[in-house]
From TrEMBL:
Its EC number is 2.6.1.1. Gene3D superfamilies: Aspartate Aminotransferase, domain 1, Type I PLP-dependent aspartate aminotransferase-like (Major domain). The keyword Disulfide bond does not apply. PROSITE patterns: AA_TRANSFER_CLASS_1. It catalyses: L-aspartate + 2-oxoglutarate = oxaloacetate + L-glutamate. NCBIfam families: PRK09257.1. It comes from Diatraea saccharalis (sugarcane borer). It holds the Pfam family Aminotran_1_2. It is an enzyme of class 2 (transferase). In eukaryotes there are cytoplasmic, mitochondrial and chloroplastic isozymes. PANTHER family: ASPARTATE AMINOTRANSFERASE, ASPARTATE AMINOTRANSFERASE, MITOCHONDRIAL. Belongs to the class-I pyridoxal-phosphate-dependent aminotransferase family. This is Aspartate aminotransferase. Homodimer.
Length: 401
């Protein structure tokens, strides 16, 4: 026996398991639609031109490798908060925010939820959309934070279930926390419309529920970072003191660099300072301080006007390619003579599409056509390219008719 003989085997990560099965498949037609990372039209990882330019500029600066401050560089946190809340946001001007760099979006969620377990003095219950990103409940489980679900996705329309969501939210106990995907909902690709966000903001305010936004895809949904920040800014305008997790994995393609941020809006500068003091203690005992490289790239892009312009164009180019693949996929399935309604493919937004395919159809797609995706029928539209879109459309037609 060893010191670890009592450890049991844990289940593999669902999404990474799909990629492994894809890698083992030797068929040249194989397609991986499981991966949650952007691919260019050649199916390759994409290094944004703005990121390249930022890297070159950083290289010339010959920066050292000293530690970052515990909460990250202020130059970084100020800029990322402005990107989320808007440059003229009053909450930033009055410095009532506490913003720290985190280990990308996951790190922001983990830190934020851990902070809740320790310092939140109301109903420690996290309400999540059904369905939601698998890591949301998992992080809560790790922290022993109870979590529940509110209705979000309507299986019949493949769209947002406004009535169900409003009804469920109106029954959430006061003081609870509601988790909201700011844009490009994962896994469904279904976002509330602007008028619907306004209604959600109202009911959440009336019921005294605390909103925690997860914004992992700012710019990825519509191609505009301001448009995609609509929900967050609407809530702030309506007087909510939100919490916000941000990630630059997708919108800057900085996946492995782990650049993200966590913001608490605290109402006034004094309580922001107190929250900051406690967040720093929490960070100090977990990983001491955040990594520099990705944050430096983000800071360079957001602070140099030409780079920022280039980046906005880069984000738009990614969003546009995804939108165009949605159109081609839908046209391909319909063009093959499929009689079902596929409008949701183009109505949904962001990296993912919830196709409506059931587990049997997904299994067929993988077994007969070498197309890999999660059992819930979610496809990563970023995995589709002009080369494989017809093949995927044909296959989806075949397994659904
Ligand atoms: N939230 C959601 C909804 C996501 O889809 C992701 C990425 N898969 C994240 C957070 C965080 O990703 P990362 O830690 O890479 O920033």
């Amino acid at each position: 026996s060893t010191w670890w003989s009592s450890v049991s085997m844990g289940p593999p990560d669902v999404i990474l398991g799909i990629t492994e099965a894809y890698k083992r498949d030797t068929d040249p037609k194989k397609v991986n639609l499981g991966v949650g990372a952007y691919r260019d039209d050649e199916g390759k990882p994409f290094i944004l031109p703005s990121v390249r330019q930022a890297e070159e500029r950083l290289h010339c600066k010959m920066l050292n490798h000293e530690y970052a401050p515990i909460g990250g560089e202020a130059g970084y946190t100020d800029l990322v908060a402005q990107l989320a809340f808007g440059e003229d946001s009053p909450v930033l001007k009055e410095k009532s925010n506490c913003t720290v760099q985190t280990l990308s979006g996951t790190g922001a969620l983990r830190l934020g939820l851990e902070f809740i377990t320790k310092h939140y003095n109301q109903t420690k219950e996290i309400w999540m959309p059904s369905p939601t990103w698998g890591n949301h409940p998992q992080i809560c489980n790790t922290l022993n934070l109870p979590h529940k679900q509110y209705r979000y996705y309507d299986k019949k329309t493949h769209g947002f279930d406004l009535c169900g969501a409003m009804e469920d939210i109106s029954k959430i106990p006061a003081g609870s926390i509601i988790l909201l995907h700011a844009c490009a909902h994962n896994p469904t690709g279904v976002d509330p419309k602007k008028e619907e966000w306004i209604q959600l903001s109202q009911v959440i305010k009336d019921k005294k529920i605390f909103p925690f936004f997860d914004m992992a895809y700012q710019g990825f949904a519509t191609g505009s970072v301001d448009n995609d920040a609509f929900a967050v800014r609407q809530f702030v305008n309506d007087g909510h003191q939100v919490m916000l997790a941000q990630s630059f994995a997708k919108n800057m393609g900085l996946y492995g660099e782990r650049a993200g941020a966590l913001t608490f809006l605290c109402g006034d500068a004094e309580s922001a300072a107190k929250v900051m003091s406690q967040v720093k203690i929490m960070i100090r005992t977990m990983y001491s301080n955040p990594p520099l490289y990705g944050a430096r790239i983000v800071q360079e892009i957001l602070s140099v006007p030409e780079l920022k312009q280039q980046w906005l164009a880069d984000v738009k180019s990614m969003a546009d390619r995804i939108i165009s693949m949605r159109q081609q996929l839908r046209a391909g399935i319909e063009g093959a003579g499929n009689k079902q309604n596929w409008q949701h493919i183009t109505d949904q937004i962001g990296m993912f599409c919830y196709t409506g395919l059931n587990a049997d159809q997904v299994a067929k797609l993988t077994k007969d056509h070498h197309i890999y995706l999660t059992k819930d029928g979610r496809i990563s539209v970023a995995g589709i390219s002009s080369k494989n879109v017809n093949y995927v459309a044909e296959a989806m037609h075949k397994v659904t008719s």
